[in-house]
Amino acid sequence: MKRYARLAATLGQRIEQGLYRPGDRLPSVRALSEEHGVSISTVQQAYRVLEDAGLVEPRPKSGFFVPEQRRVPALPAMTRPAQRPVDISQWDQVLEQVRTSPGDNLIQLGRGTPDISSPSLKPLLRAMANAARRSDLRALGYEGIQGSLPLREQIARLMLDSGCRVPPSEIIVTTGCQEALAITLRAICQPGDIVAIDSPSFHGAMQALKAHGLKALEIPTDPVNGVSLEALELAMEQWPVKLIMLTPNCNNPLGYIMPDTRKRALLSLAQRYDVPILEDDVYGELAYAYPRPRSIKSFDSDDRVLLASSFSKTVAPGLRTGWVVPGRYLERILHLKYIASGTCAPQPQMALAEFVGGGHYEPHIRRMRAQYQRHRDLMSDWVSRYFPDGTRASRPQGGFMLWVELDPRFDSVRLNQALRPECVQVAAGSIFSASGKYRNCLRMNYSSPELPRIEEAVRRVGAAATRLLEETQALESSPEPA
């Protein structure tokens, strides 16, 4: 770790521990330079890192201060889904969300889209132009079925940060993480099989279950520690679970990072019942804390964990470039990849290999982590300010999604209908449940750098939610007709 990063981590820890309180003036640049024996430019760079993370704010001619404390909503309670296998529904609601094209008039708080306007992506645009200009025309031909070797080499290098030592020969490039999830389900499960999932869970993964005729067994999930291992073990004793599928790092939609002790315990449970694990790590690189969290795959000793990920959330969704590390299912998944979609487009793979290999990926990720963490704090404050009293919200440890829980009588599907004239869309909570639970919840995206526009959108959502809840309460309190 570089000196400025070490100093930033030290100061950040002091702020988090309360040694510097909200509103306190922090030591001067010169004082820190003398205290830590580093240059003034090192201290200035450390303060810039903390400023990007939202932990300090500069005041002209006054120095650096700890920001005044923002309001943070209470966390949602442990979820309590029906613990029995169910068929997946909610496709009509998912379709309504994903069929809407991005436009200037509609603010899509419900979509899982990262910020693609960052200047740190300019090297990627140059790499794409370079790939298109290659005189050997490789960008117009077929790539190998397993994907570009230079890209797989870079993916293998990136996976070291999560504790995984995987050779490029064990990586399959896919058309986004969605294809990785879909072909993995087909490789392991037969129609009618039961898959244990965290709850709430990513709607795309559940629709993949639906497409293959699989049943979902939703497991109670804590917004801080993740899926309940006790409930999972009880479910596996009671039902013939064929696969465990979950997102343990920077979970979508709750944002938690499962502690390493629980990841190890989960793997041990899967080994005891001889069940494979499908780990969706698509947000893992966007953890706010450094180093990034370890994957369950990094603890895997018998190749039962299949890890799926992509560049869609870390770089850009339009590249449609993901991957899967299939473990013992390599040959089966490679065959399914061949018959489902064949090879992936070469140009995005060539551009990503150049972008990552050229040293541009890590600075981009650092910038995005700091931006998203700062935006999380802002959106949490806006929810506290604009939403009805008693609203709860997650405290994401990475990524760019906030899960909001309102009064049990609230209906987020009705909310989306009320928001149409306001040109705002959220993700209704019911699409994150196989059985349509969480109608009183919603998910919002805070990746956009257009903060005034997003704050106004959140204000509109809060105002509409308040109005709908008041209408519901009024109907309930009105006297029954004689």
UniProtKB/TrEMBL annotation:
GO terms for molecular function: DNA binding; DNA-binding transcription factor activity; pyridoxal phosphate binding; transaminase activity. This is DNA-binding transcriptional regulator, MocR family, contains an aminotransferase domain. Transmembrane segments: none annotated. Residues 1-69 form the HTH gntR-type domain. In the C-terminal section; belongs to the class-I pyridoxal-phosphate-dependent aminotransferase family. InterPro entries: Aminotransferase_I/II_large (IPR004839), HTH_trans_reg/aminotransferase (IPR051446), PyrdxlP-dep_Trfase (IPR015424), PyrdxlP-dep_Trfase_major (IPR015421), PyrdxlP-dep_Trfase_small (IPR015422), Tscrpt_reg_HTH_GntR (IPR000524), WH-like_DNA-bd_sf (IPR036388), WH_DNA-bd_sf (IPR036390). Keywords: Aminotransferase, DNA-binding, Pyridoxal phosphate, Transcription, Transcription regulation, Transferase. It holds the Pfam family GntR.
